[in-house]
Amino acid sequence: MEDLVQSPSLARRALWLVDLRWIAIVALASATLVSDRVLGVHLAKGHLYLLCGILLVYNAVLYGLLRWLTKGRDEPSSKAIGRMITLQVSGDLVILTLILHFSGGIENPFSFFFVFHMIIASILRSRRQSYIQAALACLLFGSMVWLEYSGLVQHYALEGFAGHTLYHDGVFVLGTLLVFSATLFLVVFMTTSIVAQLRSQQEDLKQANLQLKEKDKIQNEYVLRVSHDLKGHLAAIQSCIDAVHDGLLGNLNDGQKDMIARAHRRTAQGLAFVTDLLKLTHTKLAGQPGISCFSLKAMVGKALAAAKSRAEAKGIQLSVEVSPSVETVCGEQVLIEETILNLLFNSVQYTRQGGKIRLEIQDRGTEVLFHIRDNGIGIPEDEKDKIFGEFYRATNARAVERDGTGLGLSFAKQVVERHGGHIWAQNNPEGGCTFSFAIPKNLQERSRC
Ligand code: ADP
Q1: Given the CA of residue 395, which atom of ligand 1 is nearest to it?
Q2: Residue to substitute in 269, 387, 423, 428 for testing ligand 1 pocket (most ligand atoms within 8 angstroms of CB)
């Protein structure tokens, strides 16, 4: 959940206030025009249009300042942005008071708009700051009312709307001021209390999230150790079986050969499973990616050479097309190569004899796009999103191929997301499917930071 008071969101909210103010300026100008021309309520038009002009300049300056404060910074100083918000709210209170003064003073019901400013201050600023803003609002509104009441400044009546003498009625003035002040302080009290509760819940969630991550890490470390140990045992068992299987310990009868062949196959499956699990867990536990830039052509050459023999064994035609504008790719070479290889192996596995597989690499401006297209069995539409989950194997895949770990695509997803990219699968209209992943190009710049 986004922190209510963290600086990037605070900056966004400060800009949102600026956006709201553009709307308020248009609303003020239109309301002045409509009141005068349509409703017959006569206002101090000149002064109000002048205030629109001042607001325009004030808002443009605030916008420029905020853009300057946030430009090129991931985390603008929350103190500076916080001060800007305080300045904005205080400035708005002054301008709202002036607008009210030129449009009926205490007789103008728009005085309730002070409440919105109190809510904004209570959400974006501290409890103390919010009460200061409430006190400022009471002071400004109270001073205007008192100055008009005492005749020290002119009262601009809302001709055609309310009684013109209310501003001079002591009981009405005092009563309104009391209700006004109580409302503002109550609003601040209620809003800051709700915001405080939300912040504390947010903090709890953050802590729970940290604990979950820590637990996840411990679990992954455990899986890593167990699978590492298992891999060692399975590799040892396999070499013993191999020796018997290959007849190094004497000839076997047909029954023994069959049993050893089965044991050989099951051990190979177990080893493949543990190896995939190890790779996936390693990637999950790895820290920041160690990025380097490498030749795309060389990497693709290696991956194709590794997939070629499997493809040929099934009479599958393997082709490749690489955009000439992508010479290098930045990232973790071994992992990206393994990802391409995983996807190529999958295509070979799930494509029938004599099928076709095509690897395409395209330049998409800010990212490099990889497509692995085949004309194999495709993916059931309702399982397309599930296949990237750990241990998941689609129903049609299980029917054609018994062996499989369901971990290859989870590994590919981990690798691509580690590089700030995304991966997806689509069925082709002509049959088979295409696995695609995109890796951002700016990784090179990030690696220099
Ligand atoms: P595995 O291939 O070992 O089952 P993966 O994680 O690599 O595990 O793939 C998960 C599932 O995604 C597969 O079981 C299969 O259902 C589906 N899949 C992956 N690649 C293809 C493909 N090229 N064509 C059809 N289905 C695929």
Answers
A1: 16
A2: 387
